[in-house]
Amino acid sequence: MRKNFRDRKDDRDEFDERVIDISRVAKVVKGGRRFAFRVTVVVGDNKGRVGLGVGKARGVPDAIRKAGEKARKNMRQISLVGSTIPHQVYSKHGGAIVMLKPASPGTGVIAGGAVRAVLQVAGVHNILTKSLGSANVLNVARATIKGLQDLKWIEEETAKRGKDRQQIMPFWERERNG
Question: Tens digit of pLDDT for each residue in 136-146?
C-alpha cells in the first residue's frame, strides 16, 4: 500500500468542486454511433485559486473524475481585493464575452450559470457580471477564468504607478480620513 494515500485524499477535500455541464457527445464509427459524456468541472479553494477541467469518458462518473483531476492541475491564483475583484475586466473566449465588475460589500454574486459557479469556487463574494455573445457553457466558463487571470495585482500597480495602495483601491475599500 502507498504511504501517501491518506494525504492525497485530504488534499482533495479542501477544494470546492462543481460540475458545470454534462453533455453527450457522439463518435461515428463503422457500426453506428459511439456515445460518450463530456463533463466540465470547476475546482477552487474559495481563497483565490480556481481551475477548469474537461473530461470525456463512456460513463459519467469516469468523466467527472477525469475533469476534476484536470481542473486541479490547471489551478491558478487570481487577484482579489477583500471579497471582490480589483477592477472591471472584459474577456473573450470563442464567441463568449464576459464582463466582470467589482461590487461593494453586501451585493452578492450577480451572475448566472457557469460564471456564478467559477466565481463562487474562486472565493469572490461581491461582483456584478454580464455574459455577452455565445451562451455555450464551456466557452463562458473559459472566458470567466481568462478574465480572472487578466486581473492586475494591487501591489504591482502601486509600484508601477508610484501611488499609495489606498489611492488605487475601490472607493468602498478605502479608509476614511477624519
Answer: 999 999 999 99
- Report d(CA 43, CA 23) in Å as an integer: 19
Would you give the distance in Å from CA 60 to the centre of its chain? 22
Residues in Cβ contact with 81 at an 8 Å cutoff, skipping those fewer than 6 apart = 102, 154, 169, 170, 173
**DSSP assignments along 31-100, one per residue:** TEEEEEEEEEEEEE-SSSEEEEEEEEESSHHHHHHHHHHHHHHT-EE---BTTB-SS-EEEEETTEEEEE
Positions of the chain with pLDDT under 50:
1, 178
What HEC string does 108-141 produce? CEECCHHHHHHHHHHCCCCEEEEEEECCCHHHHH
**Structure confidence by residue, pLDDT tens digits, 80-102:** 988 899 999 999 999 999 999 99
Q: Exposed/middle/buried for 127, CB within 10 Å: 0-12, 13-18, 19+?
A: buried
